[in-house]
Structures are given as C-alpha cells and as structure tokens.
Amino acid sequence: MKREIQTFIDAAEADEVEHFTAETTQAKFFADADKLMAPLADFIRQQIGADKLAQAELKLTDTDVSVRLEMSVINLPLQDSKTIGKIMETSDEADINVYAVIETPDINVSGLRIDALAPATTYVGQAKVADQSLHDWLGLQIEKLQAAASNKEETDVKKK
Fold it and tell me: Among 117, 137, 136, which residue's Cα sits nearest to residue 127?
C-alpha cells in the first residue's frame, strides 16, 4: 500500500481517515491489553484491505492515556501531518506503515511514543508477526506506566 506523500498529507489534513474508538479503564488495559487492542488491529486490517487510511484509538477513561494504531508514511502522529512536507519530498511515493502510538505525560518527557509495527501490506499478510510486535510494544509501554506510577507514589510528599 503506497501513497504519494502530498496526497497522504492532504488526506490526513482533511481527515479523510477512517476512525475507530474504544474505551476501557487502566486496570483492564493492564490486565489484558492484547484483547482490548484486537478490535483496533482488526479495524486497521479491514481498512488496509479497502485501501483506506485509518486510525484506531483506545482511550483509558480513568487516566489521560490514549493508545492508537495509525497508518502513515512516517513515524509522526496523524495530527502532525503538516510536518511531513518539511521532512519528505512531497512528490515522492511512500509505503504506508502501521504505527503504534501512546500519548500520556507519564510515558516520557514528550508525552508521546510512536513506533513502527509493520508496512501495511505486511500488517495484513503476516498478521501473527505484527500482533506479536504489538504485544511486545504494549508490554513495554505498560511497564513504563507502572514504573511511573510507582515512582510517583514513592516521591510524592505525604500530607500530614
């Protein structure tokens, strides 16, 4: 699956992107992230099959965490699509990849982590490998969030 970079930027800016949103709690996410992310992965695969751009989001309703799967030509969140034209030659054609994105102040200093999972065609053609990559990525992010929560508890000043 490929797109001319300017065509991709235009589509992202015009929100010509299929959307899927689900909600859960942090405890449920920590307990079984794979199960909760499976509908998002299925949605992304359906959109790849239909040659459409897509974004699937899981919101943790009791925290400020957003976990997403996004299709893009570069590892920038879709909302930053204007930046792509400053980095890449807009007349070139590029592969569409599937990225895992997490946004929360507790993940790192920037509050954002984005990593490539696979090219779109591989994400469909080698679904088990892509799902394992997502599983591994989710495990790392959950560890970071749990460590941040633990560190916060240990460093917070107790009120008397």
Answer: 117
For 30, the token pair is 């920590």
For every residue of 98-144, DSSP letters joined together read: EEEEEE-TTTSTTSEEEEEEEEHHHHHHTHHHHHHHHHHHHHHHHHH
Question: Taking 90 as the threshold, does the pLDDT of residue 157 lie above it?
Answer: no
- Look-up of token digits 């307990």: 31
The secondary element (H helix, E strand) that includes residue 149 is helix 127-155
pTM of the complete model beyond 0.85: yes
* Residue 117 CB-half CA count within 13 A: 31
pLDDT in tens, 107-141: 888 889 999 999 999 999 999 999 999 999 999 99
Give residue-wise pLDDT tens across range 18-48. 999 999 999 999 999 999 999 999 999 999 9
Distance of CA 144 to the CA centre of its chain: 16
